[in-house]
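Q: What residues go here?
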């Protein structure tokens, strides 16, 4: 069984004009003795405080996983200059790029391609004591103050103002709804998958 902990719930707050305050949901996965930090986000102070609350130091993080390349999801890699950064197919270690396929190497953490919001977007699926949990990045995300509807129809039709490929996004959403019991969205609250 894989363990997980949502360290920071993602948010996206309009702050006037075209400005935002945004940082994604940051999740810690513990699997096969590794501390995996998923989408470390943009707020240095919030991340440090959240790790401290779990009694985890920056040096305890074994690897960082990025669901996609939007800066609000990854700015905090600056706090971990010596930690390997993984995306859906490559490990970045100093100037080396090491390709892999399938799970995060050496773990039971499954990588599922979920393009749409961004072409490189991937999600992670883990088996936990609470069921199959998907860390879904921006496959779903809500602006603060917007009611988070999690019936199937609303989830499939949720508008993404930053979508790159609408058709791919819909297919990715269907794929994850068929695989997961619990979904951790990019910005918003964790929700359970309902049948309807
Ligand atoms: Zn994004």
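A:
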């Amino acid at each position: 069984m894989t363990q997980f902990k949502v360290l920071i719930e993602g948010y996206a707050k309009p702050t006037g004009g075209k400005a935002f305050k945004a940082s994604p949901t940051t999740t810690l996965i513990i699997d096969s003795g590794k501390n995996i930090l998923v989408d470390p986000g943009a707020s240095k102070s919030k991340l440090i405080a959240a790790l401290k609350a779990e009694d985890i130091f920056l040096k305890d993080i074994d690897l960082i996983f990025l669901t996609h390349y939007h800066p609000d999801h990854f700015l905090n890699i600056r706090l971990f200059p010596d930690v390997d950064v993984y995306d859906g197919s490559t490990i970045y270690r100093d100037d080396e790029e090491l390709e892999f396929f399938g799970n995060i190497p050496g773990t039971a953490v499954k990588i599922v391609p979920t393009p749409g919001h961004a072409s490189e977007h991937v999600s992670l699926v883990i088996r936990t004591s609470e069921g199959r949990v998907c860390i879904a990045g921006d496959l779903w995300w809500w602006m603060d103050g917007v009611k988070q509807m999690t019936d199937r129809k609303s989830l499939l039709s949720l508008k993404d103002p930053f979508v790159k490929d609408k058709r791919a996004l819909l297919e990715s959403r269907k794929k994850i709804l068929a695989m997961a019991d619990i979904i951790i969205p990019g910005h918003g609250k964790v929700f359970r998958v309902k049948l309807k």
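A: Context that may help when evaluating the design: The chain has a mean pLDDT of 97. The two ends are 28 Å apart (CA to CA).
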